[in-house]
Amino acid sequence: MNPLFLAAPVVAAGFAGLTAYGARHPRSQLFGPTIFQTDFPRKLALTFDDGPNPAITPKLLDLLDRHNAKATFFLVGKFVRECSGLVKETAARGHLIGNHTETHPNLFFCGPEETRTELLRCTEAISHAIFEEPRLFRPPFGLRSPWLGEIVSQSRMQAVVWSLLPGDWRVKPIDWLTARLRPIADHAKQNLSTGDPPQPQGHGDVLCLHDGDYKNLNGDRSHTLAALEFWLPRWRDLGLEFVTITQALGRAVEA
Length: 255
Fold this sequence. Notes:
Elements: H1 3-24, E1 34-35, E2 37-38, E3 43-51, H2 57-66, E4 72-75, H3 77-82, H4 84-92, E5 96-99, H5 112-130, E6 136-137, H6 148-154, E7 158-160, H7 174-180, H8 182-190, E8 204-210, H9 222-237, E9 241-243, H10 245-248
Parallel strand pairs: 1-7, 3-4, 3-8, 3-9, 4-5, 6-7
Antiparallel strand pairs: 2-8
Helix pairs in contact: 4-5, 7-9
């Protein structure tokens, strides 16, 4: 038997595995550079997807204000068009606004033109609301295609994923979500060296939560609020600083 016939399935399986890694893994840079951690272990980048959401986002903004926390909101264009005032308020309170596509499709199955249109229409909606183009982009479901990186770059944006995705879009008890957020505290403790006094080492987390539901406006994300009400003061007591993605990089995000 020709050894090439034996090798072909192995090569195909390897290619499929590599493609899956490039599309899904938060640390993968295969399909373009992505931001997935902060530049300092005491920096915790809070990020929220799928808004704006009139039922939850105003309450979340108040909660963040109480803890002097800044965050990055990755917005769905179709909801931005319906809630432009809420987008303006979010930006006015010092939070960053990012692009999360127009309709929240799985971009791995979208061709280049559809992908480009999804990003462009969301950018147009955000620009109309706050008179500023977003410089950050998060792919829905974190899934990337081989052509996404180039399109993001051409759109003058940088892609952002995460280091922790606790799954707050699931309908689960508050205690379940609260427990899923514990790694943030664990990482903060582990990143302290054994010196005297202890010094932080390594990188910090980018936490991905959801203030909206991409399927419906006014989605219920009250469990996300409750879990944050529990953790924000505790994370602060551990010395964490709540930052935007720009602050997480220690520099301005370049246009």
